[in-house]
Design a protein that fits this description.
- The protein is 1% helix and 28% strand.
- It has a five-stranded mixed sheet with strand order 5-6-7-8-12, with no helix packed on it. Strands 22, 23, 26, 29 and 30 form a five-stranded antiparallel sheet that branches.
């Protein structure tokens, strides 16, 4: 496969071209992972770069970092900055990386949190599926490396195996495969300095890795807020991770009911996490009279963490199997580790189902406890409305999302922050022979595509208060978003997502129709058009504009 318009074929090793590894069964894989990108400062080259970095997913066990600052240049549109097979720690990567599914988080450390100082950029990522081979560390390692070089200057973190017979997947598949989310209070007010990294795994475990740099030394990491205390190093130099909590799955073969109990070989299994957490820090919005100073130490170390369990693409928890007992759950957690850096979560024993607004720092709702309304449009244009709880077949489609906004009361900004937490859920259709699914025009039976929903919660935080899901504060009025005036976490707003054609289903795909319709007339003469007349390349650039 040639990359980027036939511009270059990149060889990552001596046997296969980039994007073209083949397995023993003759299958051909391409690049199958998500690209992340950001502006970084390369100290060795003394220049800014627009770095794009990605793994290969099932296509390989490496990472690639490219400079795409000059993509407009037709002859050589990008530079390969490094790959995991060209770094000085190549062997460490070879020993630990499986299929590189985990998208690297691109984040920063800034000397003394000074906005105008060049930041040090880092990548934080998991090591992917083991693919049935390698040392114990293969696939079970979290990495943090210099984004400009791929070299590591901190300890790698190892995820130990959970107990046997307590997971849905085989133990060999319990790996660091999800994307890692990095929380930040934006201490410089610009760069989003890395503070805590949150990672979850298919065994139901949540880890917090403290990756905050020393304030004056961006190459030093005290690790004072690792979950469970600073993680000890083993004889091979790996920091052995301690979970903050392990969540039991909600289990039952009943369509609309499930139970949560302690994890054990004769009890419940660990919940299955394959989508990344969503993270938002407290005190994100400056007060209207705030000059933009660094956030006081006492207001830091407070994060809102949203999790969702399950996946529509995991056979071991297939909700369509009547013998399968797995139900997906939605979680919302407040992590406040100011008083005790090694703790911070107030999760009840065994993480039971906990309605929103009944616990100040924890919520868990199995999907089968949430009511949704589906509008079904049949091929003959009949319309039916169905209201009931989600069934055990319902699964998340992607990671949760947290949005933070301010509030106006008339023309005045209130001293509050509003957090909207949204989960995207797909529920398959019924496999029945309802005659309304027969399309008489095409003389075909149309399979029920199911429906996609957005499940949204709202939390309001007043002033410098900590996160409190039971808050007694009230907004001055009802802002019409479906949640009323109460600041407390309350029942969610559930909306069916309108979709058409290929975008209805467990996967959101590009439409099969061409985006360019040949039946549409071309623009009229004299209409607004743009024509490329030439291009040039800048020698370098800075994302900061400083007044001289």
């Amino acid at each position: 496969m040639e990359l980027l318009n036939n511009a270059r074929v990149l060889s990552l090793n001596g046997t296969t071209n980039f994007g073209q590894p083949t397995d023993l069964d003759g299958h051909v894989f391409g690049l199958a992972a998500t690209v992340n990108n950001a502006i970084i400062y390369d100290e060795s080259a003394s220049q800014w770069r627009h770095l794009a970095v990605f793994g290969l997913g099932p296509g390989g066990s490496q990472l690639v970092a490219m400079d795409v600052s000059h993509m407009g240049r037709p002859d050589d549109p990008f530079d390969i900055v490094w790959t995991t097979s060209t770094t000085g720690n190549e062997q460490d990567y070879a020993d630990t990386l499986g299929e590189t599914w985990s998208r690297p988080a691109l984040t920063y450390a800034v000397p003394n949190d000074e906005m105008s100082v060049e930041p040090k950029a880092y990548l934080v990522f998991g090591s992917g599926y083991r693919d049935g081979a390698g040392d114990l560390e293969r696939g079970r390692t979290m990495w943090m490396v210099d984004a400009a070089t791929g070299e590591t200057n901190v300890s790698k973190a190892l995820l130990p195996l959970p107990a046997s017979d307590t997971t849905y997947d085989d133990l060999d598949d319990i790996t660091s495969v999800t994307d890692i989310a990095v929380g930040s209070h934006c201490l410089s007010r610009y760069w989003g300095e890395m503070q805590e990294a949150y990672m979850i795994d298919p065994a139901g475990r949540l880890f917090r890795w403290d990756i905050a740099a020393d304030s004056s030394d961006v190459d030093s990491f005290p690790h004072v807020a690792d979950s469970g205390g600073a993680w000890p190093l083993n004889s091979d130099g790996f920091a052995v991770a301690t979970e903050a909590f392990r969540f039991p799955a909600c289990q039952s073969t009943d369509e609309f009911n499930c139970s949560i109990a302690a994890i054990g070989p004769s009890g419940n299994k660990g919940d299955v996490f394959t989508f990344a957490p969503a993270i938002a820090a407290n005190n994100r919005i400056d007060d209207v009279d705030d000059p933009g100073t660094t956030l006081p130490t006492g207001d830091r170390d407070q994060f809102l963490v949203a999790l969702v369990s399950g996946s529509p693409n995991d056979d071991s928890i297939d909700g369509g199997d009547p013998l399968n007992d797995f139900h997906s759950s939605l979680y919302l957690l407040a992590d406040d580790h100011r008083a005790d850096p090694s703790a911070g979560f107030g999760i009840p024993a065994n993480a039971p189902a906990t309605a929103p607004g009944t616990n100040p720092t924890f919520m868990r709702l199995p999907l089968s406890q949430i009511e949704r309304t589906r509008t079904i449009v049949f091929p003959n244009d009949d319309v039916e409305t169905e209201t009931r709880n989600f069934s055990k077949a319902a699964r998340p489609l992607r990671a949760p999302m947290i949005r933070v906004t301010g509030v106006l009361d008339g023309g005045n900004q209130l001293d509050v922050e509003v957090y909207y937490v949204t989960y995207t859920i797909y529920e398959p259709g019924k496999a029945n022979c309802d005659e309304r699914w027969y399309d008489a025009d095409t003389e075909e039976w149309i399979p029920d595509p199911g429906a996609t929903y957005e499940v949204t919660f709202r939390l309001v935080v007043e002033g410098t208060d900590a996160f409190d899901f039971t808050s007694a504060y009230n907004l001055p009025s009802d802002y019409g978003d479906g949640f009323g005036a109460s600041a407390a976490l309350s029942s969610p707003v559930v909306e069916q997502v309108l979709c058409e054609g290929d975008n209805c289903g467990p996967k959101l795909n590009a439409p099969s129709t061409s985006p360019c319709d040949p039946n549409v007339d071309p623009p009229s003469v004299g209409g607004v058009q743009t024509i490329r007349t030439g291009s040039t390349e800048l020698d370098g650039f800075s994302p900061l504009e400083l007044q001289l």
